[in-house]
Amino acid sequence: MPDTAPALAAARLQAKDLSASYSSRAPILEDLSVAIPDRELTVIVGPNACGKSTLLKTLARLQPATRGQVVLDGKAIHRQPSRSVARRLAILPQTATAPEGLTVRDLVARGRTPYQSALRQWSHQDATAVAEALELTDMTQHAERPLDTLSGGQRQRAWIAMALAQDTDILLLDEPTTYLDLPHQIELLKLIARLNRDTGRTVAMVLHDINLAARFATCVIALKDGKVHRQGSAQEVITEDIMRSVFGLACRIIPDPVHGTPHVIPE
User: Fold this and answer.
1) Cα(200)–Cα(146) distance, rounded to whole angstroms?
2) Mean pLDDT across 197-201
């Protein structure tokens, strides 16, 4: 474990001896312990089927743990009221869907659901949160457009705006750059990095592109066979030895000529 471990002990979101599986299949996560560092932009990497998406879903209580537990703010998450959890933690799944014809504003407004009840209907606070989320994601000018008229990058920003409108301190994103071309991937990751930096939100996301992970992450978690293989800075995690042991990839690591972050060149 890297020398950042002591600082993670008090992290708001943690998994302790966590195991998870689907139906009767073998465990996808097995005795996994990890802490998501507060106010950092954490990227989870690893080979296919190593448990990256399952970890995010289990952290967000979308996937039940078969053993161990997820801890949010010092308490087991499964023992906390759903509405309370949803006001502190938001997740954007990889395959988010919305009804046909739904406008961007209507989608973003759905982020306010945890604050609605029979006694509390739509309020000025809700309207302000939606407006701020649209502005943060540069989607105000598209607010009245149906989602199905947007480009892929615009749709992803709209979904992120919905998660921001939920007004949580912790944001989990499962492969937010899927199906986007490289320019739109960069644009979206710059947005996420800016939100982390400017609002102080804790962000954890799954990415497949190791070089983009190295460029944007302040913390990297490498998974292998359902367990944390290594956690730390990009320089600590994205090394030739770890790329070989986690991905089976023979490579050279050089400094990125623009950003100075680790850059993987397969042999």
Assistant:
1) 30
2) 92
Contacting residues for 19 by C-beta, under 8 A, at least 6 apart: 27, 29, 30, 31, 32, 65, 66, 67, 68
Residue 6 has pLDDT above 80, yes or no: no
Contact indicator for 136, 195 with CB cutoff of 8 Å: yes
Q: Could you give the CA distance from residue 67 to residue 149 in angstroms, rounded to a whole number?
A: 43
**Whole-number Å distance between alpha carbons of 192 and 203:** 8
Give the Cα separation of 148 and 239 in Å (integer).
Answer: 41
Domain boundaries, the chain: 5-88+168-266, 99-167
Q: Which residues pair with 232 in a beta bridge?
A: 220
Provide, rounded to the nearest whole percent, the portion of the chain with pLDDT above 90. Answer: 77
CATH superfamily label, 5-88+168-266: P-loop containing nucleotide triphosphate hydrolases (3.40.50.300)
Strands 67-72 and 227-232: unpaired
Alpha helices in 87-233 (DSSP H): 104-109, 124-136, 152-165, 182-199, 210-216
Q: CA 41, CA 94: separation in Å to the nearest integer?
A: 18
Confidence (pTM): 0.90
